[in-house]
Design a protein that fits this description.
Blueprint: H1 11-16, E1 30-33, H2 39-49, E2 55-59, H3 60-66, H4 68-76, E3 81-87, H5 91-104, E4 108-112, H6 117-127, E5 134-138, H7 146-153, H8 159-172, E6 177-179, H9 185-192, E7 197-200, H10 219-225, E8 229-231, H11 234-237, H12 242-253
Parallel strand pairs: 1-2, 1-8, 2-3, 3-4, 4-5, 5-6, 6-7, 7-8
Helix pairs in contact: 2-4, 5-6, 8-9, 10-12
The chain binds cytidine-5'-monophosphate (C5P).
């Protein structure tokens, strides 16, 4: 793929990244969501950020509007893609979707842990092989309150207990990691060990607006708690200078062991 930018990634990530395959990269731990409605908007934003962020995230809005061309356009700019479509279906269907995402060359993709062990194993199997994407599981959506979660699942577990339970299931199914809110990072890191990827949204620099995020951590706090990758949108995309904002945050996220 053209315009590759050489990676400087945290050591923990270097250990789990595919040796070959989607090798486009940029420094750090920050993933910026392309939460925009059109391909033109996405390309304009990605072009500014290329070389300054670890990856960009393409989610349901952009992918539904524009499809795989959005992934290819971002790859052409030399950026990795986190395809955040949160697959949740019968195992055979999820395996097909993961295989299709793999053929697009995405670096990271998401499924729902609540699809069950068989579905997660099918996803891991579909992703396996050379040039494989990393597959991570969404545990419990952070939009759910304790009451809503209890009413929906009927489980006596707290959300934190459920998140840890699902993270262990994801690990046992052979997945690479989970998406989790900042408040669950420590428990997952303790329960699932150092090689398990933790990707967290809900991160805000100390001087940034909270927007609609609650219970946030700063980038430094999230990384110290054990997060590997941070999904940070508006503090970067709405800044007067998105590149300067991304670089400030990346610097805040550096740990002594980072390469
Ligand atoms: O602008 P902001 O930093 O809030 O964007 C965060 C990104 O992470 C958005 O793409 C949002 O959809 C996603 N996200 C989130 N909270 C979750 C899961 C995903 O904010 N619990």
């Amino acid at each position: 793929m053209p315009n590759c930018r050489v990676a400087k990634l945290p050591r923990r990530l270097v250990a789990v990244l595919p040796k070959k395959g989607p090798t486009m990269s940029a420094p750090g731990r920050v993933i910026v969501p392309l939460d925009v409605p059109t391909l033109a908007d996405a390309v304009a934003l990605a072009r500014r950020l290329a070389g300054h962020v670890a990856a960009v995230k393409i989610g349901k809005q952009l992918f539904t509007a524009e499809g795989p061309v959005a992934v290819r356009a971002v790859h052409d700019l030399g950026l990795r893609v986190f395809l955040d479509l949160k697959y949740h279906d019968i195992p055979n269907t999820v395996a097909g979707a993961v295989a299709a995402a793999k053929s697009l060359g995405v670096w990271l993709l998401s499924i729902h842990a609540s699809g069950g062990g068989e579905m997660m194993r099918a996803a891991a199997k579909a992703a396996a092989g050379p040039d494989r994407p990393l597959v991570i599981a969404v545990t419990v959506l952070t939009s759910l309150s304790e009451d809503a979660h209890r009413a929906m699942t009927g489980t006596p577990r707290t959300i934190e207990e459920q998140v840890l339970h699902l993270a262990r299931e994801a690990k046992a199914a052979g997945l690479d990691g989970v998406v989790a809110s900042p408040r669950e990072i420590r428990a997952i890191r303790r329960g699932c060990g150092p090689g398990f990827l933790i990707v967290t949204p809900g991160v805000r620099p100390a001087d940034a607006a909270l927007n609609d995020q609650h219970r946030v951590m700063t980038p430094a706090e999230a990384v110290r708690a054990g997060a590997d990758l941070l999904v940070i949108g508006r503090p970067i995309t709405a800044a007067c200078d998105p590149v300067a904002a991304a670089e400030r945050i990346a610097a805040e996220c550096q740990l002594p062991g980072d390469q």
